[in-house]
Amino acid sequence: MASSADATIPSDPESSPAPPSGGNRLVAAARSRTMRAPLFWSVVGRFPFYLVGLALVVFTTSRDAGYLSAGLFLGAYSLGTALFAPLIARRVDRYGQTNVLLITGVVYPASLIGFVAFESGSLASQLVCVAVAGATVPPISGCIRALWRGTGELERAGISLETVLFNFFLIGGPLLLSVMLLLSSPGAAIVVGGLLAAAGAIGFATTRASRTQPATPSERDPLGALRSWGLLLVLALVACTAVRTGIYNVALPAFADDQGSAGNVGLFYAAFGVGGILGGLWYGSRNRLWSLKLAVRVGLLVVTAGALLPVLVWDSWSMGLVLVVLGSFEAPMTVILYEIISRTARQSHVTEAFTWSSTISLGGSALGAQIGGLVITLVGTQMAFLCAFGVLLAAVAIAFATRHQLAKTF
Q1: What is the architecture, at CATH level 2, of domain 20-154+169-211?
Q2: What is the residue extent of each domain of the chain?
Q3: CB neighbours of 185 closer than 8 A, spacing ≥ 6?
């Protein structure tokens, strides 16, 4: 298999410095002259992604359209992302980052502005706008992960930073929406979110690292990145963890409601996000003691064991503490999975491989939410948490059953 360096940006010791012995790799990654500008613009462009989804719901319901319409719009937005994100990422690999980022950086905010402008128009017009917006979400995440792939020893620290930022966006996006609702309106929040994403995408596209990231033209292949057997195995693990997350997305509000404190559900997600930030900072600043092949199995065992903790809680405070712990377990596992994706991705489909991970996560989470809702309705919240534990057991089984095949791919 081609090495990671085969599809990287040119670098030198000054632009991508290896951290000194005992130095903090996260600090070295954040201070890399090559990655500093892309990292900044990636934060600008991705910070509002969670804001937009929530704002779509608030905007629709504030117009007395009801949750049915809100679900329809959010579903169209999510479906557009799930169906087209891998195809757009494939264009990035084939033609380079710059043009794709510039095009999506224009179409995405224009579609969101159209959605808001058509508030008194036809439902069909709004559906088209929101579906186009979902389909043209700027592929900043896949692009920056492809760049991190080319930073050598800083790659793991860079991916750890990605995990930290994910949790930061998860907490900060809804908070930004709250501020926007206090100062303006849901429609304005959608527009601001779109413009921030546009600024981040266009700014990212103009950085030297993005402009010099080589395109990798290849023969047209319907399977693209999915022709890698190793990637398919990793995506199966990603799917299991995503289903678990979807179950939690339903089980946590149900648990809060059972405790008579439905308003605490936001604090639950914040606790998980704080744990993810702490876990990402810890893992990214240290050398891994085990090989990646062993780390994925150990990580899955730890995450799966931790999934039993929600069954043992007795009130909202204990649940919050458990979620901090679970978040701190989850972050290193996420980094490990992204590292394996980096090593199993076909050289000509790197961005697409990372994007498939996000798409599988989105689909798995949606499936998990359906499973969680069904289990809670039939047998209660505790069984939903046990179901999440069972899904992770399936991931452990996959990891151990395929360990020899996976080891051959990287």
Answers
A1: Up-down Bundle (1.20)
A2: 20-154+169-211, 224-407
A3: 62
- Provide the residue count of the chain: 410
DSSP character string of 324-360: HHHHHHHHHHHHHHHHHHHHHS-GGGHHHHHHHHHHH
- SS3 at position 133: helix
- Helices (H) and strands (E) counted in the chain, each on its own, are 18, 0
Distance CA(301)–CA(307), nearest Å, equals 10
Tens-of-pLDDT digits for all 410 residues of the chain?
333 333 333 333 334 444 444 457 788 888 888 899 999 999 999 999 888 988 888 888 787 667 777 878 888 898 889 889 999 999 999 899 999 999 999 999 999 999 999 876 678 889 999 999 999 999 999 999 999 988 878 888 899 999 899 888 888 888 888 888 888 888 999 999 999 999 999 999 999 999 998 887 766 777 778 888 889 999 999 999 999 999 998 899 888 888 887 667 778 888 999 999 999 999 888 777 778 888 899 999 999 999 999 999 988 899 999 999 999 999 999 999 999 998 888 888 888 999 999 899 988 988 998 899 899 999 989 999 999 999 999 999 999 998 877 777 66
The Cα 101–Cα 201 span in angstroms is 6
Contact 165, 29 (CB under 8 A): no
The pTM of the full predicted model, rounded to 2 decimals, is 0.83
Token representation of residue 64: 């007395």
CA dihedral (197, 237, 337, 297) in degrees, to 10, reads 160
Phi, psi (deg, nearest 5) at residue 286 = -125, 155
Pick the CATH number of 224-407 from 3.40.50.720, 1.10.10.60, 1.20.1250.20, 3.50.40.10: 1.20.1250.20
Q: What residues contact 179, with CB distance under 8 A and at least 6 apart?
A: none
Question: Are 393 and 243 in contact, with CB atoms under 8 Å apart?
Answer: no
Within 10 angstroms of residue 383's Cβ, the number of other Cβ atoms is 16
